[in-house]
Write a structure and sequence with these properties.
CATH topology of chain A: Rossmann fold
CATH superfamily of chain A: P-loop containing nucleotide triphosphate hydrolases
Radius of gyration of chain A: 17 Å
Number of strands of chain A: 10
CATH architecture of chain A: 3-Layer(aba) Sandwich
Largest sheet of chain A: 6 strands, mixed
Oligomer: heterodimer
Helix content of chain B: 40-55%
Helix content of chain A: 25-40%
Largest sheet of chain B: 6 strands, mixed, barrel
Largest interface: A-B, 31 and 30 residues
Number of strands of chain B: 21
Distance between the termini of chain B: 25 Å
Structural class of chain A: alpha/beta
Strand content of chain B: 15-25%
Low-confidence stretches of chain A: none
Number of helices of chain A: 7
Distance between the termini of chain A: 17 Å
Chain lengths: 221, 822
């Protein structure tokens, strides 16, 4: 379960304060899928950063499984992420010096998982890249890179998966494949999926949809 | 994940190459030079000990007590004895000649080799022992002078000795000269039978000692209180003072070079670590988004840095050891020097260097990686803050200063380099920024290649200024070494140029002067001016009588010396106080050599009472001189104006150069001028020249290593900015820019940086070279104007070339490949 209470974010700018989020409250149940949509600059990515504990709110709170993020310091939030959170990014964020397999193993190694190799190999097979295990990111296509990123996100078996424009850098056909993969895995793993996207089709596949406009959550379905 | 995995993956990804090379170079340069200096020092000390033929020598005018010999043997030392004196050698046909007799016990020499041959100029052998009792070996020249051949008999006192060989080389020729005649070597056991040695005879006994340092120290402590008047303990410092100064300077240079190597390597490490941390920024942000804590990141990078340090230290120590081994092999094969012990110190210094370089240059940017906000995975515009800050540079500079000081053991050397560096960094940074701004004004009016290049320079102004200063430091340190090396070698060559006098002649009477000069010139032998010489003594200073010359109580004693007169200041002398006189002065003045003045306790303005034969006279000290005793030119402690000394009886002294192949001319000279004494210094000069050559080669080798370190800094410096330049060039190509435009712009950009760096470098180098030469290394400073255009030219070629080479990928590879890999 993930819940926000009057979540605010502002940053100082020359001659004042820029309010990016102006009091956001919503709740997403365990196993649900939710999409946050909105135009560029509406505050979607800022909201995602706060939800995942990558950033600190100026006011309000985020609750993940009864745990207030505001009460945690950076290292405690990192520990929470290691245990419960996974990411898929628009720009894939694979490490160029690591092979596909090593990229997937990375979060498992960080949490001290002893069967990192087997599990990573298994997830790369599930995303259809078992023939690309030892390829470096620069040797993979965009779609393949995003599938590695999805394998990495699911391999750590997170409770919540945050995806930031997961199809933003992909063509329609490749994007569709990636979306299918994301929802399939979500179903089979029982993960809560929170998406930030421009993509209407992608948003429509989610159970809940939140529309961001000028830092305010306008509507929800 | 553990640090070793991170390290392996980074290694595979090519991220560690420059960092590891820089670290390896730092450690191996420090260990190599330090070990080489230690080894060279021990080797040259033992080389110098050859001049003593032992590790220590007790010189005595009386027989050495038997209990001293027994005690030395009990302490575990090897001993030998020699007895030297001038005496007539007489043949069966009553030919006679004053020879320098040396009687030696078996075991002589304890260090170095005694060389002999069966006939005067026969095959030289070193495994010959010493002459057997009843036999003698003569200097080749003595065979001719006495008209004897092997098997003939020669009398020394009452003892007849059979000539059984020729003495061709003795390690202690210079320190064991007894009179100036040619050598006659005999066995010590025959001495009683000669009947020559009576109480009061003017002879020199020498007890030669060799063995472990500890045993030598034990014996020295025991014997020192027992030494009486006329007995003296000699060590290596007494063997060849002219060599020790050469070695001091060479060692200063080598340690300076090592220190510069440390600075260069530290700069390379700082640059490489900066790039490493920049390239790891996203890596860390992703790991943090995946749940790695700050502590975890710090431990991961700290651990991998420590491992890198350990690997680099181990490899660097091995490389350093190999480096010194290699350099020694070069010398040993060519010149027959055996490496001395190295000790542990070089490795400790190497380890400390690695620790300081990693701790102060590599760790700060890596440590700050842990502070990277994980939000960077969503927003790449967030400042990573990973680069070094001024406080890092300040701490690093202080630590390197400390390291240099420890390493060179000389605050003046360290201070001189730091002064030059400060000038380059301080003035350089300001100038760099100004020049770069000026460049934009110029650039806006230039063609498009220039506009692009200068706009690039301007846009990255601060980063470029920093890069330029680092280039300047690297070039500066290399220039300093080139300048100092040149100055040292010049000085050494000037000290003993080819054709330096290698023979001295004493006791030339006034009547013989003209005929001697024509004798020499007829045979094409070029001689130096003839100096008048009178034996005299300083009796009192300002009316205060000095203690007798043989008094043991007072430091200030009467001193006997060779007096001379001169109209002008002789060569290889420099006035350090007072003034030289007018040639025709009537005043009774005297000019003293600095150390001699100290020993008699006199200074400028003091009135000396002097005595020549039985006549006393007074003269006022009008100047003190510093004499260059390495010049191998006649030098005098006490010099007077012509009118003060001319009236006293005197002989003359001169020196000349005689090549080895004309050595036989000496026989004719001696026959023509039998009362003239000849001192042969050719062997000593050859030895000195050999050592200088060896040290010169060592310096060349070390210079090459340092130039390599400098090149590495330049490569690291260029690489530091390659990523951003690659990205921009790839983008421009994607937008349709031609290869020639990009290559031209890159070349101009790096060449401009190189030109400014070269200018700043030569400025700092001149400053450091001035300080080093005048304050630390006791050399004469000369500006090097020729270096200015060269430095700028080298900066343009090196930085321009390296820059274009490093970024050529942006021009050659398809833009998409470049963009995808970044």
């Amino acid at each position: 379960m993930i819940k926000t209470i009057n979540l605010q974010k502002s940053v100082p700018i020359a001659g004042g304060v820029l309010e990016i989020l102006r009091g956001i409250s919503f709740e997403i149940k365990q196993g649900d899928t939710a999409a946050i949509v909105g135009v560029s600059g509406s505050g979607k990515s800022t909201l995602l950063g706060l939800l995942a504990g990558l950033d600190v709110a100026s006011g309000g709170d985020v609750i993940i499984d009864e745990q207030s993020l505001a009460a945690l310091d950076e290292d405690q939030r990192a520990a929470l992420r290691a245990k419960k959170v996974g990411f898929v990014f628009q720009s894939f964020q694979l490490l160029p010096a690591l092979t596909a397999l090593e990229n997937v193993m990375l979060p498992l190694e960080l949490s001290g998982n002893t069967s990192a190799l087997d599990r990573a190999t298994g997830y790369l097979e599930r995303v259809g890249l078992d023939h690309r295990l030892n390829h470096y990111p620069s040797m993979l296509s965009g779609g393949e890179q995003q599938r590695v990123a999805i394998a990495r996100a699911f391999a750590a078996r997170p409770q919540i998966l945050f995806a930031d424009e997961p199809t933003g850098n992909l063509d329609k056909a490749t994007g569709d494949t990636v979306i299918e993969l994301l929802f399939d895995l979500n179903r089979s793993e029982g993960t809560t999926l929170v998406l930030v996207t421009h993509d209407e089709r992608l948003a429509r596949r989610c159970k809940q949809q939140f529309v961001m406009e000028s830092g305010v959550l306008e509507a929800s379905h | 994940m553990n640090p070793a995995v991170l390290l392996l993956r980074d290694w595979r990804g090519g991220e560690l190459g420059v960092l590891l090379s820089a670290l390896l170079l730092a450690v191996s340069v420090v260990v190599g030079i330090s070990a080489f200096v230690n080894s060279l020092q021990s080797a040259l000390v033992s080389e110098s000990l050859r001049f003593l033929a032992a590790d220590r020598v007790i010189r005595s005018s009386q027989a050495i007590p038997n209990e001293w010999t027994a005690r030395a043997e009990l302490d575990g030392l090897r001993v030998a004895q020699t007895l030297g004196f001038p005496s007539m050698a007489v043949t069966e046909s009553d030919k006679l000649y004053l020879a320098s007799i040396m009687a030696v016990s078996s075991g002589y020499p304890l260090r170095g080799e005694l060389l002999a041959s069966e006939t005067p100029y026969g095959e030289v052998r070193s495994d010959v022992g010493v002459p057997k009792p009843g036999e003698t070996w003569l200097a080749p020249r003595l065979f001719a002078l006495l008209e004897v051949k092997p098997g003939d008999r020669v009398w020394v006192g009452d003892k007849a000795l059979v000539v059984s060989g020729a003495v061709r080389g003795q390690p202690d020729t210079a320190s064991a000269a007894f009179g100036y005649g040619p050598r006659l070597l005999m066995n010590l056991a025959d001495i009683p039978a000669t009947g020559i040695i009576q109480p009061g005879s003017r002879v020199t006994w020498r007890l030669l000692l060799a063995g472990e340092a500890a045993a030598l120290d034990t014996f020295t402590q025991w014997v020192t209180p027992l030494l009486s008047q006329g007995q003296r303990l000699l060590g290596v410092e007494d063997s060849q003072p002219s060599i020790s100064r050469t070695l001091d300077r060479a060692q200063g240079f080598l340690l300076l070079a090592g220190s510069l190597g440390v600075v260069l390597a530290a700069a390379a490490i700082a640059l490489a670590a900066r790039r490493f941390s920049e390239r790891h920024t996203d890596h860390v942000a992703i790991m943090k988004s995946l749940g790695a804590s700050r502590g975890r990141i710090a431990r991961l990078y700290g651990g991998s840095l420590l491992m890198l340090g350990a690997v680099a230290t181990a490899l660097g120590c091995a490389l350093g050891w190999a480096l010194q081994g290699l350099s020694f092999k070069l010398f040993a094969e060519q010149l027959g020097v055996q490496p001395g012990p190295i000790g542990l110190e070089p490795y400790l210094i190497g380890g400390a260097t690695a620790l300081v370089c990693l701790g102060f240059f590599a760790w700060p940017p890596l440590q700050r990686l842990a502070q990277i906000p994980p939000l960077r995975v969503l927003r790449r515009d967030i400042d990573a803050g990973g680069a070094q800050r001024w406080v890092d540079y300040a701490l690093g500079a202080i630590s390197v200063f400390g390291l240099m000081w420890w390493y060179s053991g000389d605050l003046r050397v360290t201070g001189s380099v730091v002064a030059g560096l400060s000038l380059t960094v301080g003035a350089g940074y300001c100038a760099a920024q100004l020049l770069l701004r000026g460049g934009r004004v110029l650039g806006s009016a230039a063609g498009s290649v220039w506009r692009l290049a200068l706009a690039n320079l301007q846009r990255r102004g601060a980063a470029n200024a920093l890069q330029m200063v680092i280039f300047a430091i690297a070039i500066m340190l290399m220039l300093v070494l080139v300048i100092i090396r040149g100055a040292l070698i010049d000085q050494w060559q000037a000290q003993l140029p080819p054709g330096s006098p290698n023979h001295f002649m004493l006791n030339i009477t006034a009547d013989e002067r003209a005929s001697l000069a024509s004798f020499l010139s007829e045979r094409g032998i070029e001689s130096q001016p003839q100096f008048p010489m009178t034996r005299g003594r300083v009796m009192a200073v300002n009316g205060e009588k000095l203690a007798a010359a043989d008094s043991a109580q007072s430091q200030r004693r009467q001193r006997e010396a060779n007096f001379t007169y001169a109209d002008s200041l002789p060569e290889a002398n420099e006035i350090i106080a007072g003034e030289w006189w007018d040639a025709d002065t009537d005043e009774a003045q005297v000019s003293l050599e600095e150390e001699f003045a100290q020993r008699v306790g006199a200074t400028v303005g003091d009135l000396l009472e002097l005595r020549i034969a039985s006549e006393s006279f007074e003269a006022r000290v009008s100047s003190l001189r510093e004499s260059d005793w390495q010049s191998m030119k006649p030098n005098f402690f006490v010099i007077f104006p012509r009118k003060t000394l001319e009236r006293f009886p005197k002989t003359f002294l001169t020196s000349f150069y005689l090549p080895a192949e004309q050595k036989a001319q000496l026989n004719a000279l001696i026959t023509a001028f039998p009362t003239v004494t000849i001192i042969e210094l050719d062997i000593v000069i050859a030895e000195i020249r050999t050592i200088i050559d060896r040290v010169g080669q060592a310096i060349e080798l070390v210079l090459a290593v340092i130039l390599l370190a400098g090149a590495l800094v330049l490569i690291a410096g260029v690489q530091a900015s390659v990523d951003i330049r690659l990205r921009e060039s790839a983008l421009l190509r994607a937008l349709g820019a031609k290869k020639s435009l990009l290559l031209g712009a890159l070349l101009i950009e790096f060449a401009t940086l190189g030109a400014f760096a070269g200018l700043l470098a030569v400025l700092g180098a001149e400053m450091a070279a001035w300080a080093l030469q005048t304050q630390a290394l006791d050399l004469t400073y000369q500006a090097s104007p020729w270096l200015w255009p060269w430095s700028i030219f080298a900066g343009v070629c090196l930085i321009g070339g390296l820059g274009v080479l490093s970024c050529r990928k942006a021009v050659v590879a398809p833009p998409l490949v470049v963009l995808r890999e970044l």
